[in-house]
Amino acid sequence: QVQLVESGGGLVQAGGSLRLSCAASGRSFSGDTMGWFRQAPGKEREFVARITLSSTTDYADSVKGRFTISRDNAKNTVYLQMIDLKPEDTAVYYCAAHYLGAQKYRHWGQGTQVTVSS
After folding, report:
1. Residue 88 backbone phi and psi in degrees, to 5
2. Per residue in 20-53, pLDDT tens?
3. What's the rounded Cα separation, in Å, for the pair 49 and 82?
4. pLDDT score, position 71
5. HEC states along the chain?
6. What is the mean pLDDT of the chain?
7. 69 has a pLDDT exceeding 90
8. Among 19, 36, 53, 62, which one has the highest count of C-beta atoms within 10 angstroms of its own C-beta?
9. Is 35:89 a contact under the CB 8 Å cutoff?
């Protein structure tokens, strides 16, 4: 059974940093694109970043230059390093694996809360 478990969320002041982790189990995702999404209260879930099997990355404009996605295939884990956090980054952050196209993924984690205070 495939499982994605996010960790690393928390409360941080504006300008601070956090690193989210997403540990996958059940099968290897080294050959898959993996991504991060977020959902703020009252808003739809939105794309944040993705990384392909060759480690090509893509980011939402709102996080470019501040967030970095990376992966460790040996650990079957994907990371999201976030710096210079802003209150508008407050959301539940979700990990996703096995890209199906059109921003759709087969597997999703349960989410981790990130709260940025001003």
Report:
1. -70, -5
2. 999 999 988 988 999 999 999 999 999 999 999 9
3. 11
4. 96
5. CCEEEEECCEEEECCCCEEEEEEEECCCCCCCCEEEEEECCCCCCEEEEEECCCCCEEECCCCCCCEEEEEECCCCEEEEEECCCCHHHCEEEEEEEEEEECCEEEEECCCEEEEEEC
6. 96
7. yes
8. 36
9. no
Tokens 């996010």 found at: 6
Q: Which of 52, 53, 78, 54 is nearest to 67 (CA)?
A: 78
Burial letters 37-71, b for 16+ CB under 10 A, else e: bbeeeeeebebbbbbeeeeeeebeeebeeebbbeb
Please say whether the beta carbons of 67 and 61 come within 8 A: no
Local confidence band at 102 (pLDDT 50, 70, 90 cut-offs): confident
